[in-house]
Amino acid sequence: MFWRPKADPLPPAGADAVAPAMRTAAAWSWRMLVVAGAIGVLIFLIIQLRLIVIPLLIGVLLAALLVPFATWLKHRLRFPHWLAVTTAMLTLVSVVTALIWLVVAQVRAGWPSLQDRSVDAFDEFLVWLSTTFGLSTDEITGWIDGIVSELDFSTGGPLVTGALSVSATAVELLTGTVLVLFSLLFFLIDGPNIWRFVVRIFPRTARPAVDGAARAGWLTLTNFSKVQIFVAFVDGLGIGLIAWALGLPLALPIGVAVFLASFVPFVGALVTGALAVLIALVYNGPFIALLMLGGVLLVQQIEGNVLQPLIMGPAVRVHPLAVVLAVATGGLLAGIPGTLFAVPIAAFVNVFVRYIASGRWRIIPHPMTLSDIQPPPVAPTQERP
Fold first, then answer.
1. Residues 6+ apart with CB under 8 A from 71
2. Which of 84, 191, 252, 253 supports an S-S bond with 73, CB 3.0-4.6 Å?
3. Cα 57 vs. chain centroid, distance in angstroms?
4. What is the mean pLDDT of residues 99-109?
């Protein structure tokens, strides 16, 4: 027999030519791209339909607050269903109307004195500019006239365009308010049936997990709404009392504005606090403005270091860094509405995912309290010597 050299094996071809690590990375990559694309399309649709989505989400947040109240009226006070729903709706409308009436009445009562003081403060500012920088009255007047002329009061000018934009925003606000009340009313009347319809959209095998996880997220959302109202009340009361103690005008409207703006994390407190400091600067001078600034910072520190960790933290169950990133992302994508819904959406998604991943929906398919959401603590294992 003749000896033949052994032929070299053929190199792998096709998928076999790719290293296992690269195949795993590619499999993860295209799946992540599909998920990211789906999320991107969902965000795009939400932004395009924001005039409907935002009122609907506000209705959900209000329902998270009013559903326990209506349930309490039915179970404790034996109210009929229709009477409990009517009482809850009337309570909400009455509280909001009372707050608006207080603000309008206080602003109307204090507006003349604030207007006169604003004119005096502006004259003092002109005198300060003249004495500090050596500017003449004619030069300052010329600058002011130039700024006014740049505003352009013509038909296509920015002021007219801004006025039209405000008018359109007012119409959108009125329409959104009607949608909020309409959706809230049906959430209170027929919420369970609406949710059962949503659950039937999912595959039959996934319905128990989705239902249990969503109920867990709903409990977190209701707890967040109650705690957020308490935190906003503390902020408004603290800053309002400081403004009243310092002798600021419109102390009550300032407190109400802080209360309402505190529902927008970080941004709301910053804007209303700056407004309070500005009123103190115009009406009472720099020293009182510094005291007001110190009071605002004190209240914010109490909120950030006491209320948020002790009260808001257990309610939201989201790490503070995740809260900051969620608020920043929401503001970047959707402005003020994004910052308003960022924390409750992050809290809901966090509890929803963790409840499904832990498999707790098999043990407690219908969680009723916050203790049902948390898994039992695991006893630490002792290491062998």
1. 84
2. 84
3. 11
4. 80
The values of phi and psi at residue 268, to 5°, are: -60, -45
End-to-end CA distance of the chain: 68
On the question of pLDDT at 320 being above 80, the answer is no
Q: What's the confidence (pLDDT) of residue 265? A: 66
Those residues with Cβ within 8 angstroms of residue 177's Cβ, 6 or more apart along the chain or in another chain: 55
Cα distances (angstroms) measured from residue 363 to each of 373, 375, 376: 11, 10, 12
Is 50 exceeded by the pLDDT of residue 112? Answer: yes
Cα R_g (the chain), whole angstroms: 29
Contacts of 378 (CB under 8 A, 6+ apart): none
* Domain ranges (residues) in the chain: 51-113+153-200, 202-374
Average pLDDT, the chain: 77
Lowest average pLDDT, out of 68-77, 247-256, 360-369, 375-384, goes to 375-384
Written in H, E and C, the secondary structure of the chain is CCCCCCCCCCCCCHHHHCCHHHHHHHHHHHHHHHHHHHHHHHHHHHHHCHHHHHHHHHHHHHHHHHHHHHHHHHHHCCCCHHHHHHHHHHHHHHHHHHHHHHHHHHHHHHHHHHHHHHHHHHHHHHHHHHHHHCCCHHHHHHHHHHHHHHHCCCCCCHHHHHHHHHHHHHHHHHHHHHHHHHHHHHHHHHHHHHHHHHHCCCCHHHHHHHHHHHHHHHHHHHHHHHHHHHHHHHHHHHHHHHHHHCCCCCHHHHHHHHHHHCCCCCHHHHHHHHHHHHHHHHHHCHHHHHHHHHHHHHHHHHHHHHHHHHHHHHHHCCCHHHHHHHHHHHHHHHHHHHHHHHHHHHHHHHHHHHHHHCCHHHHCCCCCCHHHHCCCCCCCCCCCC
**High-pLDDT (> 70) share of the chain, %:** 71
Q: Cα separations (Å) of 340 from 158, 228, 262, 266, 327?
A: 29, 11, 9, 10, 8
Closest CA to 349 of 332, 379, 382, 326: 326
